[in-house]
Design a protein that fits this description.
The protein is an alpha/beta fold. The chain is built from 3 helices and 7 strands. It has one domain: Rossmann fold (3-Layer(aba) Sandwich), CATH 3.40.50.
Length: 149
Amino acid sequence: MSNATFYIVNPQSPQAHREGFARYVLFLAQHFAKQGAKVYLNCDDKSQAEWLAEHFWQVPPEQFIAHNLVGEGPKYATSIEIGHQGVRPSWNRQLVINIADNQTTFANKFAEVVDFVPCDEKAKQLARERYKIYRQAGYQLQTIEIDHP
């Protein structure tokens, strides 16, 4: 069975701000990759994907995990691949972390989905729409409030 987990961003948390959110996405991607998952980070557009990829270079050397943008990197890609709407992830991705605001077009393509419910009302509504899409696609759904500093 496929699973989708929605992380609820608390307005008072560090993740409510762009840089804190990027650090949390990085933390999750590293966490899943260390467990052996092939992770795909789905962004809104190329500039957001490049912005997020840059954050992977800002970690201390002992926390570094290989990553690449879609179309770059080794033939079978790295543990973490970063892309956006209009590009296709490598065939071997099991888990997607969605940070794009738009509706999902990848329901049923990944066994595991991580998504977010942001603080902004418009973005919350889009997250609700994605939640419905995953439910209709048969995903097992859960929500988790972010309490990570």
